[in-house]
UniProtKB/TrEMBL annotation:
One of its GO terms (molecular function) is ligand-gated sodium channel activity. The lineage of its organism: Eukaryota, Metazoa, Spiralia, Lophotrochozoa, Mollusca. One of its GO terms (cellular component) is plasma membrane. Pfam families: ASC. This is Uncharacterized protein. The chain crosses the membrane at residues 38-56. Keywords: Coiled coil, Ion channel, Ion transport, Membrane, Sodium, Sodium channel, Sodium transport, Transmembrane, Transmembrane helix, Transport. The keyword Acetylation does not apply. It comes from the Eukaryota. InterPro entries: ENaC (IPR001873). Belongs to the amiloride-sensitive sodium channel (TC 1.A.6) family. It is found in: Membrane. Its main location: membrane.
Length: 657
């Protein structure tokens, strides 16, 4: 037992010596005295207990999932609508400035800022005008500028739009402080809608060159620094503004650097307010007055006059940005809200414009526009004087021109009238003469050329081919009767023979006369010399020949191939008819004397006669149409055209005189 104990003790001692467990050596050392070992044992046990406690504690902590950064998305369904400040880019209204006799002053202040100084100010006797008067009295009026404003579908109360002077000039701020000033859902219908009339026709020189507006969304208590932070919106745009609200809460010292200082001129601490406070204090110290946009406390510092502005405040404002870091201590505020805007543009449609502007509005606007244009163009010195010069010159030139033109025109017109009247009388005489001539010529044609044709036709021509088919058959039957010898009685044969010869010769006589008459007719047309000699009213007969339209009559013989061809054939067929009638007579002789009939000769007589007559009838009608009647038709046509022209001329003269 003791041997085993001995062995245990020695191995314990050995373990205590070689283990890295610090201090265990002193507990297991058999040579050390008991109280010392006991103290060591107590110490070790206590340390072990602490160790176990700490391990348990850490493990428990680990399983409690601790975090050091806490990001929490807070969905807020009711958000406070920010204050909306809008400023016209144009600070001064032309008509108001003109009424206050400040147009030239403002123009010079802002178009020649380098050279404008207190001396120039005195020349305008404007040194005692305060900045407040200058800006407020000629700013765009709320009722003109904010044409229409709708908050959640209802017109905005007048009390919700406040006039406010900012670093950008006179602006208007929409602030709905009532219960209604919260929005619960997005969309144009649930927010603010503004229709603005920037009154561009009222624009004049001023601190800003742009057209349109500047807009800033900001917290209700904040002083808006529109000039520095605002967003520019061009005219004619339909702008949608989305808003995102960012709330920032900073940690104060010693963790962060945020600090809400108390300010002298403002109740709410923001960095902007601090800067402005600092600037105001400096302006008050140096100049004893402030600019319009700076805050005040109990009326101090007062607003500068223009004299003080140019003498002092201008320098302060110019040097302030560089000095502000040294002069002002503006820590980050511990809590502030940012309104991040998300702007999209569309152009305003003409239809919407028309819809927006009622008839009344339009009339009122037109009136304002006219007044403003009149003022601005009156005051735009360069343009005005240039236009005036141009106008004078134009007037002078116009007068000269008018004199010249009037004199010249009068002369020209009166001489033209005289000339036209003379000419008209000439023409009228000519016309009357010409018309008389036409009628005279038509008369000559009718009476002295065509009337003979009618006479020949009546007496000879119409008999030439009269019943030519029966006529030649009658001849033929007689020839046959003479030839076949059936008629025994000599005297009857003789009578038949004589009868037949009479028949032939009378027709031949007619044809011969026709040929003579035709020759007369065609000669008259070939020479243009009349056949008859009728008298036209009181015109002497001797005038008939010179007055006849000879070239026209001559032309009628050759004016086309029908006239040429059938004019000739008329005579040729008659000539050949005479010959064939003679031939037929020889056939008759043979039948009577020799009682023979050659069928070939008989056919020749009959067919040739028929052929000639048929063709002559056709040739006659063509000849009448193309040659005999043609000149009169031409004259009538000419007379008709002439009359038309004449009537047109007469009408024209009636209109022009
Ligand atoms: C929502 O925001 C308003 C301020 O805009 C605040 O008063 C309100 O406590 C917020 N609600 C929640 C649930 O955060
Ligand atoms: C401006 O005020 C000063 C001091 O009151 C006065 O002497 C001066 O005549 C005034 N000038 C004009 C143009 O009113
Ligand atoms: C237009 O002008 C007249 C008088 O100037 C005024 O009575 C009327 O209310 C105006 N109309 C609108 C729509 O402003
Ligand atoms: C036709 O000619 C014949 C013979 O020359 C003549 O006698 C007769 O008068 C003429 N006919 C007319 C109508 O002139
Ligand atoms: C008719 O014929 C004869 C001979 O054939 C001729 O001499 C005469 O000139 C002709 N007459 C006409 C009008 O053709
Ligand atoms: C009739 O015909 C014959 C033969 O064909 C001829 O010899 C004779 O001369 C003709 N008679 C006449 C009058 O032409
Ligand atoms: C009739 O016949 C004879 C001979 O037969 C001839 O000589 C004569 O010329 C003829 N007469 C006629 C008119 O043909």
């Amino acid at each position: 037992m003791s041997q085993r104990y001995q062995r245990f003790r020695s191995s314990l001692h050995e373990y205590g010596n070689s283990a890295s467990f610090h201090g265990l050596r002193f507990v297991t050392d058999p040579l050390a005295n008991k109280p010392r070992r006991l103290i060591w044992l107590c110490l070790l046990t206590a340390c072990l207990a602490v160790l176990v406690y700490q391990i348990v504690d850490r493990v428990t902590h680990f399983y409690s999932y601790p975090v050091t950064v806490n990001v929490k998305v807070n969905y807020n369904t009711t958000l406070q609508f920010p204050a909306v400040t809008i400023c016209n880019q144009n600070a001064f209204k032309a008509t108001l400035s003109a009424t206050l006799s400040r147009y030239r002053l403002i123009e010079e202040m802002y178009t020649e800022p380098e050279t404008f100084n207190q001396d120039r100010l005195r020349e305008f006797s404007a040194e005692n005008i305060s900045l407040a008067d200058l800006y407020l009295e000629s700013a765009h009026r709320k009722e003109d500028f904010i044409f229409r404003s709708v908050w959640k579908g209802h017109p905005v109360a007048d009390s919700d739009i406040h006039e406010l002077v900012t670093d950008h000039g006179v602006c208007y701020t929409f602030k709905n402080t009532g219960l209604d000033g919260f929005v619960t859902s997005p969309g144009v219908e649930n927010g603010l809608r503004l229709t603005l009339n920037i009154e561009q026709y009222e624009y004049m020189p001023g601190p800003h060159d742009a057209a349109g507006i500047k807009m800033l969304l900001h917290d209700r208590d904040e002083i808006p620094r529109v000039h520095a932070l605002g967003q520019a919106i061009p005219p004619g745009a339909h702008v949608f503004v989305g808003v995102k609200i960012v709330e920032v809460t900073n940690l104060p010292l010693p963790h962060g650097s945020c600090l809400d200082k108390t300010l002298e001129y403002s109740d709410v601490y923001t960095t902007e307010a601090c800067q402005l406070d600092c600037l105001t204090r400096r302006a008050g110290q140096i100049c004893g007055c402030r600019s319009l946009f700076m805050p005040q406390k109990n009326g101090y510092p007062p607003i500068c006059t223009l004299d003080a502005f140019y003498g002092c405040l201008q320098n302060v404002l110019e040097s302030f940005p560089a000095e502000s870091a040294d002069l002002c201590d503006c820590p980050v505020p511990c809590y502030f809200r940012l309104y991040e805007t998300d702007i999209s543009y569309a152009s305003t449609s003409a239809y919407t414009l028309n819809k927006l502007l009622g008839e009344d509005d339009k009339n009122n606007l037109t009136e304002k526009l006219l007044r403003a244009s009149e003022v601005t163009s009156r005051y735009e010195l360069n343009k005005f004087s240039k236009i005036q010069k141009l106008n004078d010159r134009l007037k002078r030139n116009m007068n000269e021109l008018r004199e010249k033109v009037t004199v010249n025109l009068k002369e020209t017109v009166s001489s033209a009238i005289v000339a036209v009247n003379d000419r008209y009388q000439d023409i009228e005489e000519h016309y009357n003469w010409k018309e008389y001539l036409y009628r005279y010529q038509a008369y000559i044609m009718e009476k002295n050329f065509m009337r003979p044709r009618d006479a020949y036709e009546e007496r000879t021509f119409h008999i030439v081919a009269l019943g030519y088919a029966e006529y030649i058959m009658k001849i033929e039957s007689r020839i046959r009767r003479l030839a076949n010898g059936n008629i025994v009685d000599a005297s009857s044969r003789q009578v038949l023979f004589d009868d037949t010869l009479d028949l032939l010769s009378s027709r031949r006589k007619i044809v011969e006369t026709a040929l003579v008459n035709f020759t007369t007719l065609i000669e008259a047309y070939d020479t243009g010399i009349q056949i008859f000699n009728y008298k036209f009213f009181s015109t002497p007969r001797s005038h008939n020949i010179p007055a006849a339209p000879k070239p026209l009559i001559k032309e009628s013989r050759v004016h086309n191939s029908y006239a040429k061809k059938y004019g000739k054939r008329f005579g040729t067929y008659l000539n050949r008819t005479i010959n064939i009638l003679n031939f037929c007579q020889s056939v008759v002789d043979e039948a009577f004397y020799n009682k023979t009939l050659d069928e070939g000769n008989m056919t020749e007589c009959r067919e040739t006669f028929r052929f000639l007559m048929r063709n002559w009838v056709f040739a006659r009608s063509v000849f009448y149409f193309e040659t005999i009647d043609w000149p009169l038709k031409q004259i009538e046509e000419r007379l008709k055209n002439f009359d038309i022209l004449w009537n047109e001329l007469k009408q024209f003269m009636r209109i022009s005189t």
